Amino acid sequence: MLCINSIAQTKTTGNVVEYFGKEKIITTAEGNVLYHFLNGYTLQTESRTGTLFNGQDPVAWQYAVGKFVNPTKQKGDWQEINADSAKVFSGKPMRSAFLYTQYNASKEQIVLLETTGGTRTYINGLPHEGDHYDFGYTLIPFKLKKGINEFVYTKGRFGRVKSKIIVPSKSIQFTKRDLTLPDVINGEKDEKWASVRVINATEKELKNLVITATLSSGEKATYTTDAIMPMFVRKVKFKVPPAKNDFTGELKMELTLADKSGKIIDKTEISIQQRAATVHHERTFVSKVDNSVQYYSIAPALGSGPKALVLSVHGASVEARNQARAYKQKDWVHIVAATNRRPFGFNWEDWGRIDALEVLAEAKKVFNTIPAQTYLTGHSMGGHGTWFLGTTYPGKFAAIAPCASYPDISMYGFDKGDEMHDMFKAFEPIKRSANSGRVKSIVQNLKQGGVYMLHGDADSTVPISQVREMRQILGTFHPNFCYYEYPGGEHWYGDHSVDWFPIFEFFKRQTIPTNKEVKEIDFHTATPAVSSTDYWIKLQQQIKPFDFSNINAKIDKQQINIKTVNVSIMELDLVSLDLKGEITLNIDDQLVKTTSDKKAILNLKDGKWALINEINTAEKYAERQGGFKFAFDNNVVFVYATGGSESDREWYLNRARFDSETFYYRGNGSIDVISDKEFSLEKYKDRNVIIYGNASNNSAWKLLLKNAPIQIDNQQVKVGDKVIKGDNLAAYFVVPRKDSKTAMVGVVAGTSEKGMKATWANNYISGITGFPDVMIFKADLLLNGLPDMKVSGFFDNDWSAKTLEFFN
């Protein structure tokens, strides 16, 4: 883990540096402290929950089934604990335990809960995101009820929790915690995107708020920002004006928040950097995942003219700005550091993967780089990211250079819980849906590009056995790789842990070939939803979703010989191969004739390959596959139920809020959250939608899910022609949005109150966890795990439910 910023918080243990990359928030500027929690109770819990599946939580189960008992009334297994002199609950009891605290309020009022250290927090039985990175970002608006209020915190990374109740100074206000800012660039005249958090400590949605940013030099930019749901802190967009005059250093920038009539609600002053484009600097863009503002950092090339591009991916707890500054500027290449959405983020999988691709595309456009000279490197977790992105996207990088790396994160940090889960049949689709991160299963994709491996031989954080195994694997097939063990090198031994001269000299010798230069392809992938293309071959559909597929193709004059494994539909870009006339495709020993002037789309049906004219977008294809987590990656909007009982309405509103809090905290996200009454097909056209609620209480269900293969109401779940009855059933599933060729609908729903509350376990907003198309389970899964799974698996390619597996 990288440490290169002396002002940041650090802690060194042996050769490990915990580097947070951001100053920890230690003061409260948003109001006055009403109460510090100093006394509580801990409940020890086992942690053998696994990496790919982590759905168990005994406290969540107690709340779901109505069995939670306040430990001040019935102590049971809860043990008393007191905070230390710094008002922190810590020590051995906190390393694997729940923490309970309470507050006896004299009146009802809206307040903020500020928590550091806990992963999740229940406030009077409703789940909220915590602060397990210990950054001090978390501010949760909630309504204190008169009398006893209960707070339960799940364990964090560091075995410590600090919590207090704040009376906000204003109901609507800015907070300067966790800004995302660009640099003001000398000579550039366009406005830049930025984002700031706005606290809405009211029970009304805020719409049409206007943020005006004014530089100390007088320039202004105004933007009507995102809507903010009730009782929520959202990170919203605004624009930073360009500077008229060149300057180098810190500028002051005033932000004002006004309603649509122009009335000022709040104002604050922040600092922003103005720099030349020729030095290290930061840029921003709007992500297609959730329309949020993300940033990346640049070590720009020296001099003018077309340059190469290196994408550098950071290690766990490292900020992109500090990753970029580990590199000295070069005369031939721009070095671009993506964020993974957060310093910890998603292990460069899931939304971290998307962030890397978005930054790559943005940097290519901004710097007009030489397409054939694109490279990839990274350190520690970023070393895993380098292996993962390099193997997943053959053809995007001329060469890769993993440093201090491990290939598969699930095997590197292998949890015995996954081994335990293997005994349950219900685990198979969960495990399969995480196959896209199994680097060693798709490592053959590296064959066309160069590989340079760098590792310190004294690294005790990532054992050198990890990279030695990869050296051995590459030695069986790869013609173009280098390997170097740095003598005495610990996990981080200075900037040359990444800025290693031989890596860049190796990169200089590599280029990405054109399609017509690639005569043989050996493409491996776990799903076209993540990786579908290798030069002139595209996998459109699998026979068995999320199982490994292979396409081996070799051009022999006017014939292309192809062997496939787990391929249903594939596409060949014949036009780019510069062949002439008629082409013979020998595919799995079947001959198909076509011409070289068009793409060839091949479909396997009843054991025979045949050409088809176009992809049927109503079925699964590369741009729209299953996997529940993929419902969250296309300008997604959350739609919560407003029908049903008071409990239904409260839970599903909070459930959508909780997921939005989690996506913000873990992925620097900013998601539109609306009621079902606000939703319309046209207004949210071609956007992914997450439905919170069922057919009985969410009116958007009729618009989006009327003919879905799974139907849920308060008494039962219907899957195809099978019916599962019960008031304690929960479901996650994803289906195509019928009015779009690309958008999807995800569902978080339950039957009645127990089932609704069983949907608590939301580790789908987490790197590397496995979620198939469908999971239907009893509330008791929160306590017992996989034995209480009822249905899981993948829809057929036509999105029917025929092959879903039923248990118990």
From TrEMBL:
InterPro entries: AB_hydrolase_fold, Peptidase_S9_cat, Plant_Biomass_Hydrol_Est
GO terms, biological process: proteolysis
SUPFAM superfamilies tied to this protein: alpha/beta-Hydrolases
Domain Peptidase S9 prolyl oligopeptidase catalytic: 347-507
Pfam families: Peptidase_S9 (PF00326)
Keywords: Signal
GO molecular function: serine-type peptidase activity
PANTHER family assigned: PEPTIDASE S9 PROLYL OLIGOPEPTIDASE CATALYTIC DOMAIN-CONTAINING PROTEIN, UNNAMED PRODUCT-RELATED
Name the record gives this protein: Prolyl oligopeptidase family protein
